[in-house]
Amino acid sequence: MLSLRDNFMPEKSKETIIISLGGSLVAPGEIDLGFLKNFRHSLQKYLKEKRFFILVGGGKVARNYQKALLEFGAKSADRDWMGINVSRLNAEVVKQSFAGYSYEKIITNPNIKVKTNKDVIVGAGWKPGWSTDYVSALAAKNNKVNTIINLTNIDYVYDKNPSEFPDAKPLKELDWKSFKNIVGDKWIPGLSMPFDPKASKLAASLKLKVAIINGKNLERLEDFLNNKPFIGTIIQ
């Protein structure tokens, strides 16, 4: 795992896009090899003109461990470290799935810029209190990236929780102020949100564009990368 102060300097001719990859897509229980193979296949189509910085989350597995720790009185920081460690395990699998294209180390500090000719850089959780969504926003800031794709397991951002409210409405586009009104401003370990409150605040200050896309339907990701209409939500 990377802790060196290298420089990530992508070729000027290539656009860099950050993908915040939900851990539950990688490992909903067991490792989803089918998803990983399809994800690799989708991104390979764009490597001639794009580079991808993939930040991998801990997902459901991390939340299960965090729930167990809480049952035994673990502090917030300890539960966060559990999520970070799971995210790093997930990231190792993602990195290996891009063998030949990926940088050989996992990025664990978003303030580090990696100098490499590889077209796929994979990162994971950094430190307590900061989700991989937040790490993605920091990476965008430090690498002058304007767009984050958040691959998750929902089709849209909704005006309220659709699992609790049958009349919840999907939102195809909204600004950061409106999004903040939906997700609030409090972070707790294991929080499951389309893009968490801390990350949202940073993304808003940086005027980033974040696309929320269901990673179970990778043709939607490809539509977005092809600048075509896609099923999902844009926040900007």
Describe the structure.
This protein has 236 residues and is α/β, with parallel strands linked by helices. The protein has a single domain, classed as Acetylglutamate kinase-like (Carbamate kinase). Helices cover 37% and strands 17% of the residues. It is built from eight helices and nine strands. Strands 3-2-1-4-8-9-7 form a seven-stranded mixed beta sheet, with helices on both faces. Strands 5-6 form a two-stranded antiparallel sheet. Helix 2 packs parallel to helix 8, helix 3 (59-71) packs antiparallel against helix 4 and helix 6 (176-183) packs antiparallel against helix 7 (197-206). The chain is globular. The relative contact order is 0.17.
What's this model, at a glance?
The chain has 236 residues and is of the alpha/beta class. The protein has eight helices and nine strands. The chain starts with 14 loop residues before the first strand and ends with a strand.
SSE blueprint:
Blueprint: E1 15-21, H1 23-26, H2 33-44, E2 50-56, H3 59-71, H4 76-97, E3 120-123, H5 132-142, E4 147-152, E5 157-158, E6 170-171, E7 173-174, H6 176-183, H7 197-206, E8 209-214, H8 218-225, E9 233-235
Parallel strand pairs: 1-2, 1-4, 2-3, 4-8, 7-9
Antiparallel strand pairs: 5-6, 8-9
Helix pairs in contact: 2-8, 3-4, 5-7, 6-7
